[in-house]
Amino acid sequence: MSVETRLRAHLRDTETVIIQTVRPDGSPWRTPIWAVDADGGSYIRSSHGPASAWYSRATGPGGLAVIIDDEEVPVTLTPVTDEHLQDDVDLAYRTKYEAQPQFVGNLVSPTARPTTVRLDPVRPSSR
């Protein structure tokens, strides 16, 4: 199974995924978050907006990795600005996490939407 297929399946099928970012002191930090699959891609966003610690670290120089079976899978983050795709990501969050509506509201809020990023595995040549 390719890294891309494995990453997408993990993000789609796992209730709470673990991401790893790098703190300012260089140490790794793992954070549980929610991820969804929409329109052929995998997406995450910060329910607390761009000021969230994990989001700030992920979009900084240290980048982000998804932890799959104790393995770090480095990913690229592509900001999503298309409103129709944002709507699809909202729907994916509402559908996947429908049993937890008290939290989904934060993930589909005007604060969270601008932090939507598409995750793709880092290609060996782009490291």
Automatic annotation (TrEMBL):
InterPro entries: Split_barrel_FMN-bd, UCP028498. SUPFAM superfamilies: FMN-binding split barrel (SSF50475). Coiled coil: none annotated. Residues 108-127 are annotated as: Disordered. This is DUF2255 family protein. It comes from Paractinoplanes aksuensis.
